[in-house]
Amino acid sequence: MAVTEQQKVGTLVRISGPMIEADGMHGVTMGEILRVGKLGLMGEVIRIEGEKVYAQVFESTEGMFLGEEVVATGVPLSVELGPGLLGATFDGIQRPLITLQQSSGDFIGRGLTAVALDRTRKWQFTPTVKAGDAVQGGDIIGTVPETKAIEHKILVPPGVKGVIATIAAAGEYVVEDVIATLQDGAPLKLYHKSPVKQPRPVHKVLPPTEPFLTRQRVLDMLFPIAKGGSAIVPGGFGAGKTVVEQSMSKYSNAQIIVYVGCGERGNEMAEVLTEFPELIDPNTGDSLMNRTILVVNTSNMPVAARDASVYTGITLAEYYRDQGYDVALMADSTSRWAEALREISSRLEEMPGEEGYPTYLSERIAAFYERCGNVITIGSHTSTDTPRKGSLTAVGAVSPPGGDFSEPVTQTSMRVSGALWALDAALAYRRHYPSLNWNKSYSLYFDGLKGWFDENAPQGWIMRRQQAATLLQRETELQDIVQLVGPDALQDQERLILEVARMIREIFLQQSAFSENDAACQLPKTFGLLEMILVYKEECERAIHREIALNRITAVPLREDIARMKEEPNDGFTEKKDAMLEKIKQVLGGLEAK
Ligand code: ADP
Ligand code: MG
């Protein structure tokens, strides 16, 4: 028997911060969206005990009364997927923030419903199927130029299958227009809805073999991740997590960026909002905002919405992956999401796990990172020549209290992501940015990427990388010796290692996010800076062999010349580097023993 509307209305019996309890509700399912109280606040069912349901509410529950009505909607938390997402800023439950601000001022009124996608905006649709074509979930039925650079593929929603009965002619349509019908009568529009808590299906997961290039030297050279991979960026307050996430949003080689600002201060998001539209995407010449979707849930917004924002963000990312794009999701900070889970769990009086986090914390975090991947999308691919590939890469900031990485969120995230970019308060204090600790960080992707670097990066990439890593390691060992017995115990050869390791740190690893020419470093420059330092070392070693004293060698003012190269632009770098290599060889090669 169908459940009637009548049975799906209950009564509010308890309010505990972001959590409510409603009684007298039949036939409600886990994850179902409720409308709570007179304001109709959105809540999500997180526990059911007979007729009693518990829900997390995505808006402030202040001023609500016991006895108010709670209505079940019959649908899970879902997002709208269609043209108009790029360039938009949404809150955790995909309400467009700009629209809401226009309608209600700076603070969003509670219970306001606003559809995610503009219902009046017209899109130029071009069909790619015809009547009689068999289609299934994931197939492209047409395209819309969403921005100058991104063609939006209109997809048959996952799970839908049939034969095209009617298809709209090329022309302008709004998202609610029916642009196709299937023979069973099912209408297809420019958008569809998708539940956020379950991953959108893929056809096949491929091994990650191409790098997600961040244009940050320390990451691309030493700790690269793959498209479809994931990394976590833990670091204490001020260590530089947000700068890392924002630099990657600006400069990485992803085609689409979904930036989830989760539980952090509002002014950081304000920076993104003002800065991104002014920046030009070097790959397309288009505004950076046109490849970006912002999902914003700042620290002053209700905690339950943080949970929603993470899922909203990753579902939007999956949708562009399904269209065949390389998508990157930036989440800043996943710790605020975990804290929201902890708060809700404690309100539910669940048995707490480590440090009060719910016992299912690791399961949730794992499920989140598992949505990353390098995939072949679903669909019969009749409308495209080759199986469509897409990727979803995620970088999650983690904010361990006191910068202590042994806490549960950092530990759990480390286990389920493929790279650790460990930020270090001591380095940040010395203004060594990005403050990535090269001894603690790692990437599990490098082996799978070797082939790509071999073929596509400047020649000698893998060898130079190894040399740099070895030098940094030797430096740590030598520093221990100096600590114990003083610098006099070292040979010239070892002193040279310390000198060169310092150059690697200061010239190569440090990279200012605010330098016009150095904020984004392309592979030739990344390689070139390192090559110059290592060739310098090799020439110094030769001079040492010719029995020239180290202090005479290092007195030659080449190090400053090399350091200045950092401020050279990417364009034309290799030529300048080659000239510098010549100079290094000439000057040091010309030193003679006295
Ligand atoms: P977190 O998000 O970890 O609290 P932020 O990313 O806001 O820290 O960084 C704090 C400050 O550190 C920045 O405002 C900036 O001054 C400095 N900083 C961080 N990374 C860099 C960088 N790559 N280049 C220059 N300055 C940086
Ligand atoms: Mg931050």
Question: Top keywords for this entry?
Answer:
single chain, Elongation Factor Tu (Ef-tu), domain 3, OB fold (Dihydrolipoamide Acetyltransferase, E2P), Rossmann fold, 10-stranded mixed beta sheet, 6-stranded antiparallel β-barrel, 16 helices, 28 strands, globular, binds adenosine-5'-diphosphate, binds magnesium ion
Question: What is the strand and helix layout of this fold?
Answer:
Elements: E1 9-16, E2 19-23, E3 32-36, E4 41-49, E5 52-57, E6 69-76, E7 78-81, E8 89-90, H1 97-104, E9 123-127, E10 134-136, E11 140-145, E12 151-155, E13 161-167, E14 171-173, E15 178-182, E16 187-189, E17 192-195, E18 204-206, E19 211-212, H2 217-222, E20 225-226, E21 230-234, H3 241-251, E22 256-262, H4 266-275, E23 292-297, H5 304-322, E24 326-332, H6 334-347, H7 361-369, E25 373-376, E26 389-398, H8 408-416, E27 419-420, H9 425-429, E28 442-443, H10 446-456, H11 461-485, H12 492-509, H13 523-545, H14 550-555, H15 558-564, H16 573-589
Parallel strand pairs: 8-23, 21-26, 21-27, 22-23, 22-24, 24-26
Antiparallel strand pairs: 1-2, 1-6, 2-5, 3-4, 3-6, 4-5, 7-17, 9-11, 9-14, 10-13, 11-12, 13-15, 15-16, 18-25, 19-20, 25-26, 27-28
Helix pairs in contact: 5-6, 7-8, 11-12, 11-13, 12-13, 13-16
